[in-house]
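Slide 14.
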Amino acid sequence: MGGFVKTLLIVEDETRIREGIRAIVSRSPVPVEEILESKNGEQALEILRSQPVDALITDIRMPGMDGLELVRLAQKLETPPLTVVISGYDEFTYAVEMFREGIRDYLVKPLDRDKLVAVLARLDAELSARQRTRETRLEAGRPLLRLLLLGQAPLKSELAAIADQFPDLLPPGSYRIACIPTAAGTVFPQEGELFIPDMDGNHALLSPGDDPDAIFRRFPQQCIGLSQVHDGVSALRCAYVEALDARGYAYLTGKSTAFSPHCPTSPPPSMEAELRQIVHLVGAFHSQSARHALGQIVLLAQNGQLSPTAFADGMALLSALLRRAYGPVLGEEQNWMGTVWAYRSVFEYYVEACGWLDELCRQLCSHHESDNQRKITKAVQYLDEHYLDNMDMATVSNYVSMNYTQFSQLFKQHTGCNFLEYVKLLRLEESKRLLRDDSLRIADVSVKSGFKNEKHFMKVFKQTYGVSPSEYRRNARMGADALP
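Slide 15: predicted structure.
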């Protein structure tokens, strides 16, 4: 069955009957988390005023404050319990009077176990229905609550109507708002609390305002920010701004904090030049220098020269500048840095950001090397097709859009020889093929293989293969397969 009767109070002056009721409740199929007992009405009222009670079972005839008076006073509480009365007198007038006071059921002594269990089941079902109604109202009111916190508030004349329409929108009485980093994981609100996830990169928790230290203890080492105590719907925005401000300074100091104004007295310095320097350092693959430059900005924030908001805005601009500069190269699937508020503190963000800058430099370097490799491959393919033309290294390096000096170095790394040597070998290989055709003169072979000077061709050929072009041709007639 359910499980919505969290706390049940039994009020009965006769110990034996009180213990009997407790035994029946304990063994019933309706789970009850806590069973309280009281032997008189005065003591019971003190309990009701000191803690929430879901259900009350009380005798009518008791010395001092009787059950009828207890029920009347209990109904005036902010959250009155569901009440069942018991009596040794099966009198209609008693029943009518008690039902006028809002009781849910009326049992006659001696108590019947099955009837008491049935009553418990009905109470549990009513509390369950109440909870579902409250959750439905909360779900309907949660988007409105988010708008109120973000400052998109309705007119003042509408606030009262909102409070009437959504009575569960706020915790009962005064409240505080806590801003909790999303890195804290799932937040499980306690009784009377409201949870709004992912607000400006943080979670927002509306909690009764009586014990701020209890909130800090629930989220150790999370660097949360807590507002002052507030009341009513109209104060929501103010409370949230206080909590967000406190969260910002908890983020910078690494410690949870309650609201206190720490705003810098002077305008924040412009960071754009420093941010653009980081972008250039990343593009030059200087990750260590980029990390150092970022660390200097973090120090400005920690020293109070940058407000938490100015720091967060600066980091958002850095991410945008890096995306704009290198997004076309690395693609949109690149893991760009997220919001600073997703981290518990600036220390965690800085460590993560340094690793991210290192990885970005590595990827850009790898892409640069791959791009240069593609260019050299393209240059080699171009030479394989145009080696007979009159060309030089400047022509080919321009063709693949590469710096002359860089092209020279990378070309030699790729082919094992310099540019002129590679072109010479291509032409010599073509001349060997042509020499197998006896109808061509040596001078014709020289021209067709790209050598404009016959004597130069003959000299280079012999230096490379150890034989003259004529000797190579003669040997080719004797056994072409044996020739290199």
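Speaker note: The longest strand covers residues 175-181.
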